[in-house]
User: Fold these one by one.
Assistant:
Number 1:
Amino acid sequence: MKKKVLNMIVCGLLAASLVFNGFQYSENQKLKEQHLATFQQEVSFTIQRLEGYQESGDEAEYSTAISHIYAAYVAVSDYAWLTDHDDLAISYSGYFHSMWNHAIFYPEQFKEITDEVLEALKAVKVDHELNDLETIYLFEKRFAF
């Protein structure tokens, strides 16, 4: 009788553990999707602001673009953390951090390469799953600051 009760308790704990782990996995997947969506949204906002800066020369547009670059960096870093440190997501994180630093500390140089930055950002916008090696190579070629 004791063995039967003990087996039932162990089975119950195992079932509870499986349910809990399934729930955690589901929540992590949702969180990953949210971070990826936020990243894509911030990339879109950055593109809009940099294009606005190119058209008007307004420094407020440039400053806002820098803020969106940083927000994209944070979102992709969180995404990389949730994907068990996916190599491509980590690469994106590093390049966005470098881009943000360059935009802050060397604004004149950064403004000169705005067309290249926009080209790279548009390539990222198309790469919804962050798995296009050509886009990473584009960043490596142009933004290894």
Note: The chain has a mean pLDDT of 85.
Number 2:
Amino acid sequence: MQGNKVSIHRSTDEGSTYGAAIASIITMEPGEEVTETVDGTQYGAGHDFREYDYGLSDGGEWNITVRYKPDQTEVEALIDARANSTKEYIQVQFPAPIGKTKSFRCLVTKAGLAIPKEGQVDRMLTLKVDGPVTDGDLA
């Protein structure tokens, strides 16, 4: 998914509010939500097939490339979370005509090199979702 109108926002109050965009998203591979299965086979069921129940779900990993101005320090604060082993609260905003948001707590598991480009900085990040992803409407 591409588009310079899709933006990333960071919360400093555990996801209650999100500030202005900290960067534009240049490329993005949203995390795939998956659910594990748990063997729920009932012995004596009259057949020789396994049966399954739903287990825990996982919000996946988001791979994004962001573009920001060198004086925007919020992206650097996000990257520092990896070094400090802290969790971040992120919201990805999809403007009109989509008008939706995806919000989640995450761990920053990868931070690529800062690449200066045309007076801005491009950087690849991998965000591991920690808990559920919340969908919302963009106000």
Note: Residues 40 and 117 are 54 Å apart (CA to CA).
Number 3:
Amino acid sequence: MNLQNTWLKYGLIYGGISIVLALYSYYISSIGLWTQTLISFLVMIGVMVFASREYKEIHEGVLPYGEALKLNFLVGFVGLFISGIFSLILIQLIDPSIIDTLKDQALESSRVILEKLGTSEEVINDALEKTEEDFQSRFTPGAMFLNILTSAIFVLVVAAIVSIFVKKDQSIG
């Protein structure tokens, strides 16, 4: 199995898991935006590690840093792209009411955080009002596509860090 087959396989797995996680949170039981983000982050790292292990098994235990970075970035980006396109289709074409669910979750999460920080009620209300006004614009097709692209920077950073730990250079001698 070559590099392309590995990143494509695990990118599809990551994208599929992300979609299932989102659907669960939207329609079955809201796990909250922060929890969903954390779980998705951990899943991404786990899938990168599994992809790296499989690649090393096939290549006699060798995975140079450059190859690891390429592999892990592509795994993360493919999964992110699949999940992002699915969300775009879901929100724009299938169920636009999800925006209201996401807005409610975001407002509640923001309120909890601001209250824990000891923010005054007036400042909290102003911040939540501003968030609510700006929320709809986050879900235009252009904004959602731009979010996918800018998230690639985050994926690159995670891939770079994961690659440090999974790399294995060829033994000399």
Note: Residues 46 and 79 are 13 Å apart (CA to CA).
Number 4:
Amino acid sequence: MLPPHRGRRTIYGLLGALPVMLAAVYWMSHTPLPGAEGGRGPLAARGLYAQAVAESERGDRVNTLRHLRMALAIIEGPAATPSDRAMEFRVRSSLARVLLARGERDEALAVCAPACRLTSDGAPALELVNLGLCPP
């Protein structure tokens, strides 16, 4: 059997650590997406795309468009990483769909033109052909 004072010290120790644990949980739950706007370090296309998807699900079309354009600017920039370039097809096709929904067909065609040549077999993606953004 434990002496009576050891149990109280353990409980007091846990209660003393509670504010630190709560602060850590709060900080971790409010950290922005890695590479996203407002995050630490340079912006990354993957983080901006994830933020655009989250905003699209909330119905925030203005910021969705803004973050997709920011991701595309990073992909087209000279400092783009291989991870950024791997997102190019997804970012271009998503941005083209948003622009097409807004009625900006000419800009959607211009954004989507490089994506029509990005598939491995050289044929345009079927989803972009069905939208009329790539020639068959």
Note: Helices lie at 4-29, 45-58, 61-76, 82-86, 88-101, 105-112, 126-130.
